Amino acid sequence: MSNVYESKHPLVAHKLSRLRDKNTEPKKFRELVREIAGLLAYESTADLLTVPRELETPLAKMTGAELQEKIGLVPVLRAGLGMVEGFWELMPSAEVWHIGLYRDEHTLKPVEYYNKLPIEPRVSVCIILDPMLATGGSATATADVLKRWGVKKIKYVGLIAAPEGINAMQTAHPDIDIYTAAIDERLNERAYILPGLGDAGDRQFGTG
Length: 208
Description:
Elements: E1 4-6, H1 10-20, H2 26-44, E2 50-56, E3 61-67, E4 71-77, H3 81-88, E5 95-96, E6 99-103, E7 110-115, E8 125-129, E9 132-133, H4 137-149, E10 153-161, H5 163-172, E11 177-183, E12 186-187, E13 193-194, H6 200-205
Parallel strand pairs: 1-11, 4-5, 4-6, 4-8, 8-10, 9-10, 10-11
Antiparallel strand pairs: 2-3, 6-7, 12-13
Helix pairs in contact: 1-2, 2-3
């Protein structure tokens, strides 16, 4: 799993434990999703390209750095929405594009119901934001859409991944790096991650 990066940061582990707790209320759950997303944003963007930038501090002239690559955030509706703010706090100029997918409860396959991408990509790097990498269906389908759109560099960032979802993503898109706060044990018979945290969308929005 050379392209899978499981965070080892103690702050991520601490916040993720509070996120998993079934007694965590939606308001706090949303705050934790945003905070963990921000920490993962830091880890997942370490390889972004920069160009030199000449500037002057209060004391001297120097050569600094400026981000060269334009970033696009692609939250998978609806659960991925909660991760956007964590990334935006670090990269406020990032564009956000929405792709809506839901999992058919009978086939467990993703169904696309919303796509508001422009005709051509205006970004050089797209980061898929989807809290749960369970079966991998939504993540692989989103990557399919982005590649057809013309994006060359794609990353996936989520909160929790199951081995089954990682395998599906690596099989379909071996070129896409996967960043996650934790890799859990397995999926249950309903394709929910164990031990997991339940339904990330329902817990964020107080539904279910």
